[in-house]
């Protein structure tokens, strides 16, 4: 389904800010907070974010690369995310972040004691909660963009 965007309006700004301002503005603030207040390393952050983008199929999210202090992940990082089980480009934390994102999105009932044992060996409880909130935000907002066709209308900002 495509949302009717008035002529001259930015699709994301319109849907998230004007169409449902009581919810959309709060949702946008949550989405921004995930990027502005994360304590996670860039590689595990992007491994989880890009795995959700792949699952959602959000074109905007797949093209986006988070930047921190002028640093982004390497260009072929998304290929490593696709192959998170076998890639040698990931350390344990990045591999677990991609795995957690995938399992959270596709089989959250299957997050068993064995998985949590591995996760807590590499992440603190604070980091796990932060990663979970981030994954949840990416899952819902990337799907919203994809379902409504906003991801095809949006243009990445030029910096």
From TrEMBL:
UniProt source species: Lentzea sokolovensis
Name of the molecule in the record: Carboxymuconolactone decarboxylase family protein
Extent of the signal sequence: none
Superkingdom of origin organism: Bacteria
Sequence ranges assigned to domain Carboxymuconolactone decarboxylase-like in this UniProt record: 30-102
